[in-house]
Specification:
Rossmann fold; alpha/beta; globular; 393 residues; 11 helices
Length: 393
């Protein structure tokens, strides 16, 4: 029996349509399969009503394209009618693997290119859709969320631009600073935490964890990520510690003040398995520095856990850290592009988010609250009980 049984009797808000941009094709196809299964298995007394027309289909994916001219300019095309549809558009702005040609030269797509393409698809809908929800796991320009000098506020501008184009809801995962939603206070904005998927992925992979405060600890690598660490520590009944970054404010390197040292606040980590949890792994330097500091304090196995594994400087540093025993496992989701090299690493745990996204889409299409989906406390508690009882999770 599905958890979202309450959805069955409510009327959908328009025909469900799923658009997976080229950057998000693989994830979109997985989400589509779950949606098909949900609705094929679902039987209710209203299934033949006109309000449920098109409810059960072979696919909910709509075909779109964003072809480019020789100059690199592009246009958005939707190849079927979307009038009256409840559209969900998925995009991964960090997928650098896609390329296009500019005057005979090959360009890799940047976040700016992906953002421009999603605007083109919204424009192609021409205001005919009943409602548009953008699912942007990595929020575009989310690290440029506040002004510290004479500089642009790109994330807020992007959110306002999308809503001005007719977007009703924006769903993102683990936003760098959720307060950026203040830029669009009259529109829907949800930042979803993949805490349950993290715990499930780790418990499936590692069978000898002792989940108690004597043997495990949650660590935030900086002061900005303490909320997610506090939540996970409270749910699992563990102690929490944090590092803060001591910076040299007399210098600016690559647009920011360089980190001089990571200072630790918390109880002893000696002999404990440690989960370092953050929103993203970019170059990975901070995570490896924190793991190294924890090893100096005699921590046992170290799990590096992050929603977005960007690995902008490659995987060599992580290979070396694992080889030296600094890091035990690296855990990220499939919400952003994953290289075949990353997926082949024996130390990597991949947390699939497609079923979770399908639940969210299915629930929203029925205009039903997603509050219970956003709070995974009960699911995590049940998962840990099964694990401690020796059952399959």
């Amino acid at each position: 029996m599905q958890r979202n049984e309450k959805n069955y009797e409510t009327i959908p808000n328009g025909t469900l349509g799923l658009i997976a941009m080229d950057s998000c094709k693989e994830l979109g196809e997985k989400v589509d399969k779950y949606l098909i299964n949900f609705r094929t298995e679902r039987k209710h007394k209203h299934e033949n009503d006109i309000a449920f027309r098109g409810y059960q289909r072979d696919t909910y994916l709509l075909e779109t394209s964003t072809p480019r001219f020789g100059t690199g300019e592009a246009k958005g095309m939707i190849k079927s009618s979307v009038r009256g549809y409840d559209l969900f558009i998925m995009v991964d702005v960090t997928n650098y693997s896609l390329t296009y040609s500019v005057c005979g030269h090959e360009n890799h797509m940047s976040p700016d290119d992906h953002y421009a393409d999603i605007k083109r698809i919204i424009a192609a809908a021409g205001g005919k859709a009943r409602r548009i929800t953008v699912i942007m796991p990595f929020l575009y320009e989310s690290r440029q969320h506040r002004r510290t000098g004479r500089e642009s506020m790109d994330c807020a501008l992007a959110l306002q631009e999308l809503t001005n184009m007719g977007v009703d809801n924006i769903i993102t995962f683990d936003a760098h600073d959720p307060r950026v939603q203040n830029a669009i206070p009259l529109k829907g904005f949800e930042t979803v935490q993949p805490a349950y998927q993290f715990i499930k992925g780790i418990l499936r992979e590692v069978k000898d964890l002792q989940i108690d405060s004597d043997h495990m600890m949650i660590i935030s690598p900086d002061e900005g990520g303490t909320n997610r660490a506090i939540y996970l520590a409270n749910v699992l009944g563990l102690d929490m510690g944090m590092f803060y970054k001591r910076r040299d404010y007399s210098k600016i390197v690559d647009g920011r003040n360089p980190i001089v040292a990571h200072e630790f606040l918390g109880s002893s980590v000696e002999g404990k398995d440690v989960l370092i949890i953050d929103d993203m792994i970019s170059s990975g330097d901070s995570m490896i520095d924190v793991a190294t500091e924890l090893k100096k304090r005699k921590a046992n196995r170290i799990f590096v856990v992050s929603t977005f594994g960007l690995f902008t400087n490659g995987l060599e540093k992580f290979d070396k850290a694992v080889e030296e025993g600094i890091i035990y496992k690296v855990v990220t989701t499939n919400l952003t592009y994953q290289t075949p090299e990353l997926l082949s690493k024996p130390y990597y745990i991949n947390c699939d988010m497609s079923k979770y996204i399908a639940y969210i889409i299915d629930t929203l299409n029925h205009d039903t609250s997603i509050s219970d989906l956003l709070d995974p406390y009960d699911r995590i508690e049940s998962l840990v009980k099964k694990y401690k009882a020796g059952e399959e999770v």
